[in-house]
Amino acid sequence: SEQRVPGCRVSTAPPYPNRLLLMLRSYFTVAWRALRRQPGYAFINIFGLAIGIACFVLIVRYVQDELAYDQHHTNADRIYRVVEIIEGAEESASQPLPVGETIRTDHDAQVEASVRFFNLQQPTVTFEYRPPTDGLVGADSAAAVQAGLIRHNETRFFFADSSLFDVFDVELLAGDPSRALTEPNTLLLTPAMAAKYFGDADPIGQTLTFEGQGQFEVTGVVAPQPDQSHIQYDILGAFVTLNQWMGPNLTDNYYWNPAWTYVLLREGVEPEALEVQFPAYVDRYFPDFIKADVRLYLQPLTDIHLRSALDFEMAPNSDIAYVYIFSAIAVFVLLIACINFMNLATARSAQRAKEVGMRKVLGAERSQLMSQFLGESILTTLAALVLAVPLILFLLPFLNELAGKSLSVNPLEHPTVPLSLLIVVLVVGVLSGLYPALFLSGFRPARVLKGDLRVGNLKASAVLRKGLVVAQFALSIALLVGTFVAFQQLGYLQSKNLGFEEEQVVLVPTQRSPIIQQYEAFRSALQQHPGVLAVTATEDVPGSKYQTNSYGLDGQEDRVQFPRLLVHDEVVEALDLELVAGRGFSQDFGTDSTAVMVNEAMVRHLGWASPQDALGRTFDDRTVIGVTANFHYTSLRTPVGPFVLDRFAADNFGFFGRYLAVRLDAGNPTAALDHIAAQWAAFVPEKPFAYTFLDQSLAQLYRAERALGRVAAGFALFGILVACLGLLGMASFTAEQRTKEIGVRKVLGASVGNLILLLSRESVQLVLVAMVVAWPLAYLGLTRWLDSFAYQTSLGPLPFVAAGLIVLGVAFGTVSLQARRAATTDPVAAIRRGE
Fold first, then answer.
1. Which residues pair with 114 in a beta bridge?
2. Which of 307, 501, 583, 785 has its CA 20 to 30 A from that of 70?
3. Res 125: pLDDT
């Protein structure tokens, strides 16, 4: 301000910093008063934004966790996994045992180091700790051992090369680095495993018994890998141990491929420089009968978790498509909340028109008005943030349960979380408030102060508001449709006829246990119980995993690779396979030790006239005795192809017999399971009994789809809630603006029902338009997603119609409640209020 004195001009304006503080204080005061004058709208804005921010932050944490897999290694950009493709048979994440060593030595110019992991292809292994019995003899010694014996089945045991520490960031917490994984029959334990077996005692130098046979010395304690690693271990054994256990027939074999193999390329070396040498490498080492079908390539370490769906993965992976889907959901929910703010702010423009006009008359510039309205928006978003933080903490455990993760928003563990929240507040505040600020600051003061509120593009504003409402509900409908289809696809995968009966089948891990040597006796003991219907042995989990083998057909010299599964007698009965020709393996036929079974796809693939024509054909020295209907020997992401059921031979049963598959009677499976456990304890008391149901094992194949459906459903509901909050605010505002009209119509005889339909009609029309927008977009996106499955549910109209009707019903109910409230007010009072 200035005071005019004759002959001079004396400014009494405060210094600039003080003016800025006064201006900010004024902005804050006006914003606070605006929120207090309209508490209902303020609540809708703040609560809606809080839900949007909370959902956004939670999904961003999920996405960050997924993208962080294997990024923690210092040389992550130079680490690659060697992948083997056997044409027509498999795309394997693992390699023959010697590949890691020979790739490093033969290609030293490109490869700095390599490391291999191998788990004996066993689902579980048994370790036990037997306390020392120095000074004790006879019965006292046996009693001491039994009293202090600690025995557990472990699922995350791997043999690994000592070069593990050169390739990956793995920390040795205790022990001599020069002995870590360098000597045969030595182990490294994680701290949890050390405490599990030895308590508080020093584990270094202690001995664990492996599978009741070999003795392993503990030479160190190794740090576990973080959750964001596809390599998870509890116990690591020295890879050199295998040279003694298996001998050169397996450790120098380039056909059997059970070892996950990683290479660290030298600085500046591109993977293509090594890959171009792989054909010559394969030709040099691989057997003649397979080398023409083998192709090796390098897979980046950081691609494994999200961009790999190979056979024999070390652990189940996720899919980058789900990262994109969750990211889109996060943006959708936050965008819906921002649309609410813009809608309500522009809808209330008439109430603030005179304020804007007066400010402009008093000299306010448009930039100052925009700052004012943007400040209000940011203040509202800050208030939403205060509410969003407890919402995040409340919802995080549910997200972890649905997604199967252990996410955290602790700022000490994740210092980017507070910064991310601040960025979200600023972006959301500016995004939500920018259009209202531009719109409100554009009023022309002379016409506004005269009471002409048709100016300022109010008509265009109404059109925009309707467009934003349509966008809100289109996003909500698309989210719901996607959720329904995700659950429908998951249900289809879990209920589809696999060609065998997976329910009531118990899998018992048996590899390297004495059960294999006593198989017939144990099998007979199990079948004494009436609840045990059939027993067989199998090399892998039927319907999940398989192996491949090279066969010479009908005496021909050329050999062909086919997927196969080693099984034993009664496999047809145990899995309830359908036979279309011939018979299954049976102990009643001595010749079955040199027999095979094939599926219908094999008959078609080889051009045989019929399944009956396949009987008597030979695969090497093995004769086809039966043809099964096609069944899914791996996940439903892969179409059924030619397949061989090969019977265990006497010389490979002990090594490859990994599971017993026991079919139980559905009448009383618990009693039958107790009988199996009791017989196990009688036959192999030194090994704890472990089992799983086949249907539960197969359900794990679709863990990512299950998490997608659950998480998408939860956030879709939040999106609809936010959209309905905005619609409630709009309905309340519309009813308030039409108060006088409502009163007049009631005086003229309009019923409450008529008024509800009148006030709800526009909202229903907007939702119908949203359906038309959402359905084709959802159809295109879901079609593309379903194309990633070899077997997929039909994309019928039901999910689209159901999602549309749900959103329509919720929207109509929301508006009707507010409309009923307005329609039941006293008409005389309504007319007076509307004057």
1. 263
2. 785
3. 86
Helical H runs in 404-457?
Answer: 416-440, 445-449
- Per DSSP (E only), the strands in 88-146 are 90-92, 111-118, 125-129
Are the C-beta atoms of residues 507 and 541 closer than 8 Å to each other? yes
Q: Which residues contact 50 (CB under 8 A, 6 or more apart)?
A: 384, 385, 387, 388, 391
Q: Write out the H or E segment, with its range, that includes residue 316.
A: none
Q: What is the 3-state secondary structure (H, E, C) of 683-711?
A: HCCCCCCCCEEHHHHHHHHHHHHHHHHHH
Q: Alpha helix locations (H) across 738-797?
A: 739-747, 752-786
| Residue in this structure with the two tokens 């990683």, named with its chain if needed | 262
Amino acid at 202: D
Task: State the CB neighbour count (10 A cutoff) for residue 832.
Answer: 12
Residue pair 719/475 in contact by the 8 Å Cβ criterion: yes
Q: Which are the contacts of 259, defined by CB distance < 8 A and separation ≥ 6?
A: 94, 95, 96, 97, 99, 100, 116, 117, 118
Say how many Å lie between the first and final Cα of the chain, rounded: 39
Q: Is residue 320 within 8 Å of 289, Cβ to Cβ?
A: no
Alpha-carbon distance of 558 to 555, in angstroms, equals: 9
- What are the pLDDT digits (tens) for 153-198? 899 999 999 999 999 999 999 999 999 999 999 999 999 999 999 9
CB neighbours of 250 closer than 8 A, spacing ≥ 6?
97, 242, 256
Instruction: Determine the pLDDT at residue 192.
Output: 95
Per residue in 718-757, is it b (16+ CB within 10 Å) or e — as a string?
bbbbbbbbbbbbbbbbbbbebbebbbebbeeebeeeebbe
Q: How confident is the model at residue 137 (pLDDT cuts 50, 70, 90)?
A: very low
Question: Of 239, 220, 223, nearest to 179 (Cα)?
Answer: 220
Q: What is the DSSP letter of 197?
A: H
**Phi/psi of residue 662, each to 5°?**
-115, 120
User: Distance between CA 439 and CA 433 in Å, rounded?
Assistant: 10
- Apex CA 399: angle with CA 700 and CA 45, to 5°? 150
For the chain, how are helix, strand and coil distributed in percent, rounded to 5?
55, 15, 30
- Considering Cα of 531, then 532, then 534, then 537, what sign does the dihedral take? positive
Q: How far is the C-alpha of 413 from the C-alpha of 393, rounded, in Å?
A: 15
- Output the pLDDT for position 140: 46
With a CB cutoff of 8 Å and minimum separation 6, the contacts of 249 are none
Residue keyed to tokens 């509901």: 717
3-state secondary structure 77-106: HHEEEEEEEECCCEEECCECCCHHHHHHHH
Percent of the chain, pLDDT > 90? 35
Q: Which residue has the tokens 């903490």?
A: 393
pLDDT tier at 616 (50, 70, 90 boundaries)?
very high
**Biggest alpha carbon distance in the chain?**
127
Q: Determine contact, residues 635/701, Cβ cutoff 8 Å.
A: yes
Q: Which residues contact 805 (CB under 8 A, 6 or more apart)?
A: none
Q: In angstroms, rounded to a whole number, what is the distance separating the alpha carbons of residues 380 and 35?
A: 8
Out of 62-66, 354-358, 534-538, 761-765, least confident range: 354-358
pLDDT tens-place string over residues 656-672: 778 999 999 988 889 99
Instruction: 797-805: list long-range contacts, CB under 8 Å, 24+ apart.
Output: 798/484, 799/481, 799/484, 799/485, 799/488, 800/481, 800/771, 800/775, 802/480, 802/484, 803/477, 803/480, 803/481, 803/484, 803/774, 804/477, 804/767, 804/771, 804/774, 804/775
Distance of alpha carbon 593 from alpha carbon 619, whole angstroms = 13
**Among 451, 458, 468, 424, which Cα is nearest to 330's?**
424
- pLDDT category at 355 given cuts 50, 70, 90 is low
Over residues 197-217, mean pLDDT: 89
**How far, in Å, CA of 638 to CA of 794, rounded?**
17
Mean pLDDT of 798-824: 79
Average pLDDT over residues 812-829: 69
Identity of the residue numbered 693: F
| pLDDT (mean) for 798-826 | 79
Alpha-carbon torsion (718, 722, 724, 725), positive or negative: positive
Mean pLDDT over residues 249-276, rounded? 91
